[in-house]
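Weekly sync, protein design subgroup
Attendees: M.S., D.O., the rotation student, P.L. (late)

Item 1: inverse folding check
M.S. brought a backbone from last month's batch and wanted to see whether the design step gives back something sensible before we order anything. D.O. pointed out we never logged the input encoding, so this time it goes straight into the notes. Structure tokens as presented (276 positions):
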């Protein structure tokens, strides 16, 4: 939600209080922050035009606060400068941006800006539903999607596990010096839960997953994370992976297992299977 402390500039919210940024990040899965020179008001229109395909999500907040420039180690532009920096703040993490876009002679084109805005709009963890499926699986950046298949009754447990894995993944990729936090060999990664009751037949046809559902047996109600089936989908190529390169199944309970399988899939070491 946008409070009265924001001033709307045709699609870009001008942040008047620094502390409201943290509140918004706590509420939204993804927030874009625009840091710019206070004299450069035209940038708001530039960002508004470039962000039109986002249809208002993620929210874009704009600020010229020296404190925020300092917090994110972004150099303060001169008063006459037209340079700016965009930060993607994901997964309610107010501290570490997952990506930065800094204007320059090579990146200031509207095409480059729009590509960045579209590429980083997805949170690290989410639920795949009828409403989110197309935006995730057919995203222009062609992400690798780690799918946990489990019944509705396990949603809270599975989503908590996915958030934990996603958080560890971001730390891991940052320490390994990936170009963007959360990527592996240039591929963005998304961790997702799918309801095995609602999507059961589709997942069986696409990925060979036969997961218990609540309506089918007591197993579905009592299943633990060790029973959750996991695949890595590369939907842009209609392929998927259910093991690492040593043919070890991907375990929902093991971050090491998931990360090894992601490394192997992104680097082309694992054997893949065709979807459909």
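Designed sequence read out in the meeting:
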């Amino acid at each position: 939600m946008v409070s009265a402390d924001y001033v709307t500039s045709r699609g870009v919210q001008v942040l008047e209080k620094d502390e409201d940024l943290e509140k918004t990040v706590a509420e939204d899965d993804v927030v874009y922050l625009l840091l710019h020179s206070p004299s450069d008001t035209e940038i708001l229109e530039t960002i508004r035009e470039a962000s039109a395909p986002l249809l208002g999500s993620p929210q874009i907040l704009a600020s010229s606060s020296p404190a925020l420039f300092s917090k994110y180690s972004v150099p303060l532009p001169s008063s006459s400068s037209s340079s700016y920096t965009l930060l993607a703040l994901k997964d309610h993490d107010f501290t570490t941006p997952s990506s930065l876009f800094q204007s320059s002679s090579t990146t200031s084109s509207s095409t480059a800006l729009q590509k960045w805005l579209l590429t980083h709009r997805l949170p690290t963890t989410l639920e795949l539903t009828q409403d989110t499926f197309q935006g995730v699986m057919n995203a222009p950046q062609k992400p690798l999607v780690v799918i946990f298949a489990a019944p509705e009754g396990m949603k809270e447990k599975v989503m908590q596990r996915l958030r934990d894995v996603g958080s560890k993944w971001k730390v891991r990729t940052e320490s390994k010096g990936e170009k963007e936090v959360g990527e592996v060999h240039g591929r963005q990664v998304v961790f997702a839960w799918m309801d095995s009751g609602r999507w059961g037949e589709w997942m069986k046809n696409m990925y060979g997953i036969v997961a218990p559902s609540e309506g089918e047996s007591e197993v579905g109600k009592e299943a633990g994370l060790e029973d959750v089936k996991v695949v890595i989908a590369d939907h842009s190529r209609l392929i998927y992976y259910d093991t690492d390169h040593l043919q070890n199944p991907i375990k929902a309970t093991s971050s090491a297992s998931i990360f090894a399988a992601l490394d192997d899939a992104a680097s082309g070491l694992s054997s893949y299977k065709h979807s459909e």
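Discussion: The CA atoms of residues 130 and 199 lie 10 Å apart. The two ends are 40 Å apart (CA to CA).
Action: P.L. to compare against the previous round before Friday.
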